[in-house]
Amino acid sequence: LDEYLARFQQSVYPLEVLLQRPLPEYVNPTKLEMYLNDEDFMDTLGMSKDDWQNLPAWKKTNLRKEHGLF
After folding, report:
1. How far apart are CA 5 and CA 60, in angstroms?
2. How far is CA 40 from CA 1, 5, 49, 55, 61, in A?
């Protein structure tokens, strides 16, 4: 039970894991970028998560596609 809960509560994954299929259980495939830690997010997308939130939806979609997070 503890192992199951730990997997369910995990909220950060390395980029390599998010690019593989199948995805880990409970990962929302439409928001893969939000599972990156802050450093990987910055390295991959070139901005902070706060800056990301201010982008228009079309730009987020294009960046997700460009980096394989779609």
Report:
1. 31
2. 30, 25, 11, 18, 18
The pLDDT value recorded for residue 25 is 83
Predicted pLDDT of residue 70? 84
Instruction: Kindly list the distances between the CA atom of residue 56 and the CA atoms of 1, 45, 53, 60, in Å, as whole numbers in the listed order.
Output: 40, 15, 8, 7
pLDDT of residue 53: 96
> Helix (H, G, I), strand (E, B), or coil: what is residue 55?
coil
Q: Sorting pLDDT into bands at 50, 70 and 90, what band is 15?
A: very high
The rounded distance, in Å, linking the Cα atoms of 41 and 37 is 6
Per the CB < 8 A criterion, the answer to whether 1 and 26 are in contact is no
pTM of the model: 0.79
**25 contacts 8 by C-beta, under 8 angstroms:** yes
